[in-house]
Design brief:
This protein is of the alpha/beta class. The chain has a 6-stranded mixed β-sheet with strand order 3-2-4-1-5-6, with helices on both faces. The longest helix has 17 residues, at about 25-45. Helix 1 crosses helix 2 (about 55-70). Helix content is about 30%, strand content about 20%. The protein starts with a strand and ends with a strand. The protein has one domain (about 1-159): Phosphoglycerate mutase-like (Rossmann fold).
Length: about 160
């Protein structure tokens, strides 16, 4: 059984010197992310691997999550996740080592929401999912031991 938790970065400052890639979390984003960490901690097992886009706001979100989760993990970053399409995200996820049981990925819209929407439509309770708000999340489980073949999830939790 594999679990994947997707988290959109928290609310970010409107502008940053150097452009979009360098936008930091705002005070609102830090607060949202802390609430998300509490929800994840209450509803899910701790991740054993975290992956984040290299953009500043996603790295800050991942760091805050790590600090508040039951068993903080090392955060790996990937430039490929910066504004990645849902297909690119899925490719990265499917490349996860099979030793990882629960992967938490912090990324960006629209790709992150598009990927979650693929799975939300399979569950009547989440059929109206319209995309992640800042610091929004979902967690899905797959009946496999091999990340390279994940497809249709067994269940989903949206927060």
């Amino acid at each position: 059984m594999k679990r994947l938790t997707l988290v959109r970065h928290g609310h970010a400052e409107a502008r940053a010197e150097g452009g979009d890639f360098y936008r930091a979390l705002s005070a609102q984003g830090r607060s949202e992310t802390t609430r998300t960490a509490a929800a994840l901690s209450a509803h899910l097992p701790a991740p054993d691997s975290m992956l984040s886009s290299e953009a500043l706001r996603t790295r800050e979100t991942a760091q805050l999550l790590s600090e508040h989760l039951k068993s903080p993990t090392v955060i790996k970053t990937s430039k490929a996740l910066y504004h990645a399409s849902s297909s690119t995200l899925l490719d990265v996820i499917q490349g996860t080592p099979n030793s990882v049981q629960h992967l938490l990925l912090v990324g960006h819209n629209p790709g992150l929401s598009e990927l979650a929407l693929r799975w939300a439509r399979k569950f009547g309770a989440h059929a109206d999912f319209g995309g992640f708000a800042t610091a929004g999340w979902c967690s899905v489980t797959f009946d496999t031991e091999d990340w390279s073949v994940i497809s249709s999830p067994l269940d989903a939790v949206f927060g």
